[in-house]
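Quick one, T. Sequence first:
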Amino acid sequence: MAMTNVERESVPRKTTMLFFLIDTSGSMAGTRIGSVNTAIEETLVKLREMNDDSADAEIEIALLEFSSGARWLTPNGPVKVENYYWSDLEADGLTAMGEAFRMLEEKLHKSSGFMQRAAGSYAPVLFLMSDGEPNDDYRTHLARLQKNGWFKASTKVALAIGDEANDFVLMEFTGSKEAVVRVPDGRNAGEKLAKMVQFIAVTSSQVASNPTDASDKSKQEQLEEALQSVDDDDDWDVGDQAGGDDGW
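Structure tokens:
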């Protein structure tokens, strides 16, 4: 049952932030970018429903697209999911994944980035989607990103779209192969991609906002187990706290 306005005002809710890094390079043109547009639009509907039903966590999203360059679709910071409405993206250009990593690291800070309200937040969820090979120096920017406190505390997952996607690069981002989910080209690839985007986004936000303690598995491990169990069945129907600065 959804919470009433009075209940929302009387019960403080922590924030779960979902960051989407979306590859819109030329190789994503056609069915792939069409499926991504449909998937994210449908996923936002599910996230709004979760937001209405949750007494503990409020969902906010930040979206970054990258091709020959990169740009934030939410330039002023994470947006409450009920206030964000999707506009379809187009695919063209190269794959500036390193620039996307640089811009993400720049914003994962309290003092000068998107984490200014992070005192009441769970660690963020980082969701990378790509179908190709980076065309820039991604390693330099990834190395800096990996030193960022919020990045280290975050839950990370990547979606490898198509047969040309570089799984190794995506593994470097997530820190493990279990957090990389592949959608190969072929029959029903678009439908499967749409289901995966929705499942992963909803599942990762649920994991991020679940309470945990020192005896539990990490949130990253919980997410990887959820992904593995669904991947085995081929059925996609569907926070940690931190403080300080220096990358927090």
